[in-house]
Amino acid sequence: MKLLEKLKFSHSSNSSNKNKQLNRSSVHSVVINGLDGRPIFLEQYKGKHILFVNVASQCGFTNQYQDLQKVYEKYQDNLVIIGSPCNQFGGQEPGEAKAIQSFCERNFGVTFPLTEKLDVKGSNQHSLYEWLTSKSKNGILNSTVKWNFQKYLVNEKGEFVDFFYSITKPSSSKITKHFK
Predict the structure, then answer these.
(1) Which of 33, 35, 68 is nearest to 52 (CA)?
(2) How far apart are CA 133 and CA 130, in angstroms?
(3) Active-site residues: which are they?
(4) 81 φ/ψ sector (left φ>0, alpha ψ -120 to 50, else beta)
(5) Which residues contact 147 (CB under 8 A, 6 or more apart)?
(6) In this structure, which CATH number among 3.40.50.1010, 3.40.30.10, 3.40.190.10, 3.90.850.10 belongs to the domain 2-176?
(7) How do 79-85 and 151-154 pair as beta strands?
(8) 174 DSSP assignment
(9) Across the strands, what pairs with 80?
(10) Mean pLDDT across the chain, nearest whole number?
(11) What does the longest C-alpha to C-alpha distance in the chain come to?
(12) What pTM value is reported for the model?
């Protein structure tokens, strides 16, 4: 009987460790706030790829909003795009939430989710970007966000796929081949 109890305990311990590893490798456990202050639960996007993009309204890459919206509309059955306003690169996103939302809707017809303004690097780095940029959390590789409109792709299981520098257009086959 004692041997059987040890086996049960041993087995449940391993199951618990496996669950911890699964949570570590999935972005779906991260919660972020939307631009409106309400939480965005990433687990609602299980079954879809997620393209995370740090965005800014006064950047040389700001016109990528238009391409992001087109990609979002074209692949919305398989993909969600989440834009995260960031003011860490040249002060290119100085606006408050309402101004950012208005700018994106008015100029680019953006309908994909936008998060609250957040830090993508440094000592106040948001937990989402900690996961995206840290091999110990995403299980694949370390990276640093170099500029606005850097893109991070996660698969339908919430697993890290790759990242793309700002110069890579959202409609590039380097990105879209993963969810076509």
Answers:
(1) 68
(2) 5
(3) 59
(4) beta
(5) 59, 61, 89, 165, 166
(6) 3.40.30.10
(7) unpaired
(8) H
(9) 50
(10) 89
(11) 70
(12) 0.86
Distance CA 16, CA 29 (A): 16
Mean pLDDT throughout 123-139?
A: 96
| Structural domain boundaries in the chain | 2-176
**Phi, psi angle pair for 45, to nearest 5°:** -100, 15
Distance CA(148)–CA(172), nearest Å, equals: 17
Looking at the chain, how many residues does it have?
Answer: 180
Rounded Cα–Cα distance for residues 176 and 174 (Å): 6
Sheet holding 151-154, edge to edge: 79-85, 49-55, 151-154, 160-164
- Angle at the Cα of 12 (from 11 to 13), degrees rounded to 5? 90
Tokens of 94: 């100085």
Cα separation, 22 vs 153, in Å, equals 18
Let me know: does 34 contact 40? Beta carbons within 8 Å. Answer: yes
Choose among 74, 137, 81: nearest CA to 104: 81
3-state helix, strand and coil shares in percent for the chain, rounded to the nearest 5:
40, 20, 45
CA distance 173 to 42: 25
Q: For 88-100, what is each residue's pLDDT tens digit?
A: 999 999 999 999 9
Task: Quote the pLDDT of residue 118.
Answer: 96
